[in-house]
Amino acid sequence: MSRISTFGRAVSQLATPSTSSSTCRSCQLRISAASQQRQLQTSAARPAFVDRFKSVFRGKKEEESTDVTTASATEALDPSDRQPEFPGWYLPKENIPEGWAKTPQDDSAYVVATEGKDLEHVGSEKWLELQFDDKPNYKGWSKVKKANGLSPRDAGARVIEAAKKAGLGEARLQQLEQEGLAFEVNDVQTNFFLQLTKNLRTATNMQIPDIIMHRATTLKDFQQAILSKPKPKKLSKDLLANSELMANPNLQVRGRRQTPIHKERAVGRWKVIEEELVNRGLPVFGHGIKADRGISRDDHAA
């Protein structure tokens, strides 16, 4: 712990302002601020006596040795190493990052560009983000099935074109030209429907269901069949189509919801349970309207 001299204690006591009870508040604040400013304005730190004594005798020798060392190190360096190889890069050749283009001095096949075409634009903020962007490039998956991008006008034109190639007579063709999609197909031969659906399948790559073909009265119905979305398949049908999944003996797929009655019937206990429920006068398939009408009975018996 450093000692505080008597002179230092006296100076610190003199630097501390004495506040009396008769001094107002504003004056006290001014005096305290002035005392703090005087305390901050200190003199520069002086070295110890031993350091000053050494500097008197050894200062000149150290300065001379430092100058000689700096001069020898400067002469040993190659002036070509101090020159930047790229603008803004003050690095030696061995520390330059990989992937940078070589200078004309290093590459003999270097050709100076005279036009800005097909040159890389560097220096912009976007280029800088691309250089230091570590995020993986996302590549989306392409759709397996192509979406139907036909408009109603295009679909109608394809239906009319397919009807013209379906083998109509001259009178029917003139009527088709006049009526368009309102052309009635009720009294047309059966071969016309088959040829029409075949032409539509080739033109639109879509299968026209047989129920729509039989219910159609005009060509407008075929246009609606092309534009309407196909009915989604049930999950059970997709699972049944998977041969690898259905090869598992521990897996069974049903087309409808399975109830405890189905499970008991599969084991062979349902007849006994049903007989006991009837003998005791208890409902077999539940209560309410469904049991009275026999809906549940037919549902489970199916």
From TrEMBL:
<dbReference type="InterPro" id="IPR018305">
    <property type="entry name" value="Ribosomal_m50"/>
</dbReference>
<dbReference type="GO" id="GO:0005739">
    <property type="term" value="C:mitochondrion"/>
</dbReference>
<protein>
    <recommendedName>
        <fullName>Large ribosomal subunit protein mL50</fullName>
    </recommendedName>
</protein>
<keyword id="KW-0689">Ribosomal protein</keyword>
<keyword id="KW-0687">Ribonucleoprotein</keyword>
<dbReference type="Pfam" id="PF10501">
    <property type="entry name" value="Ribosomal_L50"/>
</dbReference>
<dbReference type="GO" id="GO:0005840">
    <property type="term" value="C:ribosome"/>
</dbReference>
<feature type="region of interest" description="Disordered">
    <location>
        <begin position="61"/>
        <end position="83"/>
    </location>
</feature>
<dbReference type="GO" id="GO:1990904">
    <property type="term" value="C:ribonucleoprotein complex"/>
</dbReference>
<comment type="similarity">
    <text>Belongs to the mitochondrion-specific ribosomal protein mL50 family.</text>
</comment>
<keyword id="KW-0496">Mitochondrion</keyword>
